[in-house]
Amino acid sequence: QVQLVESGGGLVPPGGSLRLSCVASGYTFSDYEMGWFRQAPGKEREFIAAISWSGGMTEYGDSVEGRFTISRENGKNTMYLQMNDLKLEDTAIYYCSINDLKSETSYWGQGTQVTVSS
């Protein structure tokens, strides 16, 4: 059973930083990518960033490129999202995902709340 557990969310003032973590377990597929998405109240889920299984390839959404950095630590099955220069519009629930590229099946965590407020 695939499980993803996010942590690291919280309340931060504009311009501040947070680092989210996502620990993955229970997966057996070898060709996959991991990613971060977010959803603000009343809005659709938005792509934030993705990283290949090897960590060699990354991709970012336009709204966060240059401010957020995705990374992973394979030995710990952990993915991170370093968020810098946070803005009010970054407020959302952040979800991590793992996508089995062979079966095109995605799995999701429960989400962690990030609130940017002065």
Briefly say what this structure is:
The protein is built from no helices and 11 strands. By secondary structure, the chain is mainly beta.
| Strand portion | over 45%
Secondary structure class reads mainly beta
Provide the succession of SSEs. Answer: EEEEEEEEEEE
Taking Cα atoms only, what radius of gyration do you get, to the nearest Å?
14 Å
Tally of contiguous helical segments: 0
Q: Return residue spans where pLDDT drops below 50 for at least 5 consecutive residues.
A: none
**Overall helicity:** under 10%
Overall geometry comes to globular
Number of strands: 11
What can you see in these coordinates?
This protein has 118 residues and is mainly beta. 0% of the residues lie in helices and 54% in strands. It is built from no helices and eleven strands. The protein has strands at residues 3-7, 10-12, 18-25, 32-39, 46-52, 58-60, 68-73, 78-83, 92-100, 105-108, 112-116. The strands form two sheets. Strands 2, 4, 5, 6, 9, 10 and 11 form a seven-stranded mixed sheet that branches. Strands 1-3-8-7 form a four-stranded antiparallel sheet, with no helix packed on it. The protein starts with a strand and ends with a strand. The mean pLDDT is 94.
Summary tags:
single chain, 118 residues, mainly beta, seven-stranded mixed beta sheet, four-stranded antiparallel beta sheet, 11 strands, globular
Topology:
Layout: E1 3-7, E2 10-12, E3 18-25, E4 32-39, E5 46-52, E6 58-60, E7 68-73, E8 78-83, E9 92-100, E10 105-108, E11 112-116
Parallel strand pairs: 2-11
Antiparallel strand pairs: 1-3, 3-8, 4-5, 4-9, 5-6, 7-8, 9-10, 9-11
